[in-house]
Amino acid sequence: MTVRVLIVDDSATMRGVISASLRRDPEIEVVGEAGDPYEARSAIKELNPDVITLDVEMPNMNGLDFLEKIMRLRPTPVIMVSSLTSEGAQVTLQALEAGAFDCVPKPSLGDRHDFDMLGEKVKAAAKTRLRLRPREAAPARPAAVSSAGGFRSDGRLVAIGASTGGVEALIEVLSRFPASCPPTLVVQHMPPSFTRSFADRLNRLCAPVVAEAENGAVVQPGHVYVAPGDAHLEIAGVAGSGRLHCRLHQGERVSGHRPSVDVLFGSFARVMKGRALGVILTGMGRDGAEGLAAMRQSGAETIGQDEASSIVYGMPKAAFEIGAVERQLPLPAIADQIIKSTNLTYREAV
Asked: Is the per-residue pLDDT at 72 higher than 80?
């Protein structure tokens, strides 16, 4: 089946770049272009595209406002095309929370890798069952914490990997963590410069301290460390020594990504062995599957998001199919299980 795409961008040059990129794929047809949301509204009615690429910053109406209108009036998978600026990143994150399928950065001279993934993301978006994601108040703290009278860590560390759909998923999981949560390292596939804005967003929404990981940072309870968008993140040191720290490096892409979930999980398998818990969330491809398998083989507990709650059941499926997932759960249950598993107070109570 050919995927029919409408390109919305106020720059004729950028529309040409996006169109040329997509037309290289024989499974994609660019059915139209629009220079602003008003042109786009007419084109959507006339052309009924399968997927829309949408610029974040446009005249007359910004991309976020237009996205919300699309999701309310004519739900269609949307991929945001964003500039690599702080403002662009913040608006793009809001768009992902509002229902955009994924985002790609506008191409730069330095690195086109993420932009070159646009065709694959368009095809994945067309196959995905669109689910509207209304904005809700922050979820209540899990029953595992309140029923046990508080959280007392068992000393394990948590590693989480996510990709497409991961912004929503990570907000769901991490906003349920107690302030004294286990040290948690996160890889979310996201363009460089977006991860700091994402970490700041999580920090405002969550009880623990959330920050972009820095090389050499000592991991501490009550902290969540998000991998920068252009570096691999590993756990380093000796388990049980109290001197575990984040290690960042510019190695080659692994499973097509930097940062790679496989790299994060692999370091946990080597360093932490059974003193860890690994979680793989929604995402395209199979990054993280082999690393999660290594974690499970080393004695760690492993969790995978189930198909019904995943925006894209790619990474969790790949991990499940090779036996890397010990327990498969819907998204709303994952935070609760992490806290149950690592909470000494809860385990003593039951």
From this structure: yes
Of residues 163, 175, 255, 341, which has the active-site annotation? 163
pTM, two decimal places: 0.92
Say whether 147 is catalytic: no
Catalytic annotation present for 232? no
Q: Which of 287, 298, 310, 341 is an active site residue?
A: 287
Please report, for residues 10, 35, 62, 263, 275, the alpha-carbon distance to residue 55 in angstroms, rounded to integers and kept in the order given.
Answer: 8, 10, 8, 32, 44
CA-closest candidate to residue 328, choices 319, 350, 182: 319
Q: Which of 179, 175, 96, 99 is nearest to 139 (CA)?
A: 175
Mean of all residue pLDDT scores within the chain: 90
Q: Are strands 223-226 and 245-249 parallel, antiparallel or unpaired?
A: unpaired
Tens of pLDDT, residue by residue over 91-140, are: 889 999 988 999 998 887 556 777 889 999 999 999 986 655 544 444 45
CATH architecture entry for 3-127: 3-Layer(aba) Sandwich (3.40)
Ordered by start, the domain boundaries in the chain are: 3-127, 143-349
Do the domains spanning 3-127 and 143-349 agree at the CATH topology level? Answer: yes
309-350 per-position pLDDT tens digit: 999 999 999 999 999 999 999 999 999 999 999 998 777 665
As a whole number of angstroms, the distance between CA 236 and CA 176 comes to 27
pLDDT in tens, 217-231: 999 999 999 999 999
> What number does CATH give the domain 143-349?
3.40.50.180
189 has catalytic annotation? yes
Contact 290, 264 (CB under 8 A): no
Task: Yes or no: say if 13 and 38 are a contact pair by the CB < 8 Å rule.
Answer: no
Q: Which one is catalytic: 55, 82, 83, 189?
A: 189
pLDDT in tens, 247-264: 999 999 999 999 999 999
